[in-house]
Design brief:
Blueprint lengths: L5 E9 L6 H4 L9 H5 L3 H4 L2 H4 L22 E4 L11 H8 L4 E4 L4 H10 L2 E4 L2 H13 L4 E5 L4 E3 L6 E2 L4 H9 L3 H6 L2 H14 L7
Parallel strand pairs: 1-2, 2-3, 3-4
Antiparallel strand pairs: 1-5, 5-6, 6-7
Helix pairs in contact: 5-6
């Protein structure tokens, strides 16, 4: 898994509420048969029902179809991003498209956990702050921001650094490029030592 320490890139404003996993990673593709859609990459199908008309033509007004935001690495979203079904392909499609961070006030619980397991940062900020970031980018010639996990701050053109909070048990695995299981297994020796001591003090917890 790719390490996440400092990530800079284009931030695309998608300030919609309830962007669900079916929207993020649809199973079908407008303008294509189901058999054709199965063979397409997740990147190609990401947000397909928002990006394309029913006959498969790009919608020029959709943010990720605009030249400024085509290579977005960060998405600014509204509340409850990633709600809906539990499909992990929602995270995979974002990652495959180069997105490393989604900033929203809240996330669907399963999407939130899947994101951390795959190296995508689901960063929670108040909607007012997200709107301020989007406004600053709109006023700027630049569309890039920097997400700095080493300092827990966002760098946005025209704004003072924005601090954010992230639990260490979430932050450290991302910085080291580890999923949760791999991160836990770093402490294998300590876990085994605990179990050896615990079997002596609590033998009843370890039936033969």
């Amino acid at each position: 898994m790719e390490k996440f320490t400092v990530v800079s890139g284009v931030a695309a404003p998608m300030l919609m509420t309830n962007i669900n996993t079916d929207l993020i990673a649809p199973s079908l593709m407008p303008g294509h048969t189901p058999d054709e859609a199965v063979k397409m990459t997740l990147r190609e199908k990401m947000f397909a029902n928002l990006r394309f008309t029913p006959d498969g033509k790009e919608k020029p007004d959709f943010v990720l179809n605009q030249p400024r935001y085509r290579e977005a690495r960060v998405i600014l979203a509204g509340p409850n991003f990633g709600c809906g079904s539990s499909r992990e392909t929602a995270v995979w499609s974002l990652m495959e498209a180069g997105v490393r961070c989604v900033i929203a006030p809240s996330f669907g619980d399963i999407f939130h956990d899947n994101a951390f397991q795959n190296g995508l940062l689901p960063l929670k900020l108040d909607m007012a702050v997200i709107e301020r970031i989007a406004g600053a980018l709109d006023r700027s010639n630049a569309a890039e921001i920097t997400v700095d996990l080493t300092r827990n701050e966002l760098l946005v053109p025209g704004l003072e650094p924005i601090r954010f909070e992230l639990a260490e048990d979430r932050r450290e695995p991302l910085m080291e490029g580890l999923d949760q299981l791999s991160f836990i297994l770093r402490s294998k020796d300590a876990i085994e030592a605990f179990e050896r001591d615990d079997v002596v003090t609590r033998p009843w917890a370890y039936p033969a």
